[in-house]
Amino acid sequence: MKKYRSEVLGAIHETASDLYEAGVMNKQTLRKFDELCLTPIRPMQPAEIRALRRREHVSQAVFAMHLNVSKGVISQWERGKKHPAGPSLKLLTLVQEKGLNAIA
User: Fold this and answer.
1) Which range of residues forms the domain containing residue 23?
2) Do the beta carbons of residue 95 and residue 103 sit within 8 Å?
């Protein structure tokens, strides 16, 4: 399930996706809609991840459960030994913007 910046942008993006599938819109234009409508992600620093978890008042184990990773991975992210990427980074971004309940 895609996460949009707002309900309106979600409706616009779904319409653009339908137009692409119908052959009315090209892939480059659809990519522009992706950039506009989908929640953007950016790398997160270890201190940001730790602060985010603390802001949500959860342990590493509980945070890991919500992100579908191990407690050890959360610890490594918070120490800078590893860096979140892909779906994990997207989930962290959503938690940062909308709170842990957004992915619970």
Assistant:
1) 7-37
2) yes
